[in-house]
Specification:
181 residues, Alpha-D-Glucose-1,6-Bisphosphate, Chain A, domain 4, 5 helices, 35% strand, UCP010260, DUF1990 domain-containing protein
C-alpha cells in the first residue's frame, strides 16, 4: 500500500470526529493519556511544530508519511507498524500498513492538534487525537483514542492490542517531550 492508494479508501467506522468529545461510542475501547512536556512558550511551540510536521510519530518509531503538513481535514497518512529494530528496507516489506485520514484539527493560542480516523486496511477501527496544550501548570500532550479490532488477528490478540495502544501513546509522549525540550 502506498500513500497515493488512500484517496479512494473509506473510513472503517461511523463515529467520525468523536475524539473531540468526552463520550466513547458504544462497542469501542477508550484510551486517555496525558503527559506534561515542560514549561513555556518555546516548549509549546516546539511541541506543536513537531506534532504538525508528523515528527512525533516518526521519533516514536512509527514511519509515517502524509499528504499534508501541517495536517488539515482530509489529509491522508500512512504509517507502517513493524519490528522497530529492523532496518528500513526490511521493515517496509514486513510492516503492517496503518492508513488514516485527518478528521478534525484545532489551532488555538493554547491548544494545537488533530485527529485521524482509520481507513480500510487498518488493523483497528476507530480514531486517535493528539493535542498539545498549555496552561498555568505547563505544556502537555493529550492523546485520546477509541478503537475496536477490524481484523481477525486484532480480534484474536484481544487485550494485547489495548496494551500496545497504551504503549504507543507513551512512546508518542516521550518522543514529543524529546523534540520539544
Amino acid at each position: 500500500m502506498k500513500l497515493d492508494d488512500l484517496a479512494g479508501l473509506q473510513f472503517t467506522y461511523d463515529e467520525v470526529g468523536c475524539t473531540q468529545y468526552d463520550e466513547t461510542p458504544e462497542g469501542y475501547h477508550r484510551l486517555e493519556y496525558r503527559e506534561r512536556l515542560g514549561d513555556g512558550d518555546e516548549v509549546f511551540q516546539r511541541a506543536a511544530d513537531a506534532l504538525l510536521a508528523w515528527r512525533m510519530q516518526r521519533a516514536a518509531g512509527l514511519p509515517m508519511t502524509a499528504t499534508d503538513a501541517p495536517p488539515r481535514v482530509g489529509t491522508n497518512s500512512l504509517g507502517l507498524l513493524g519490528p522497530g529494530l529492523l532496518n528500513k528496507r526490511l521493515r517496509s516489506r514486513l510492516g503492517l500498513p496503518v492508513p488514516c485520514r485527518v478528521v478534525w484539527t484545532v489551532d488555538e493560542p493554547d491548544r494545537i492538534g488533530f485527529a485521524y480516523g482509520t481507513l480500510e486496511g487498518h488493523p483497528e477501527s476507530g480514531e486517535e487525537s493528539f493535542l498539545v496544550t498549555r496552561d498555568a501548570g505547563g505544556v502537555y500532550v493529550a492523546i485520546r483514542a477509541y478503537s475496536r479490532p477490524a481484523t481477525w488477528y486484532t480480534r484474536l490478540a484481544g487485550p494485547v492490542t489495548r496494551k500496545a495502544q497504551h504503549y504507543a501513546a507513551t512512546r508518542y509522549a516521550a518522543a514529543l517531550r524529546r523534540l520539544a525540550t
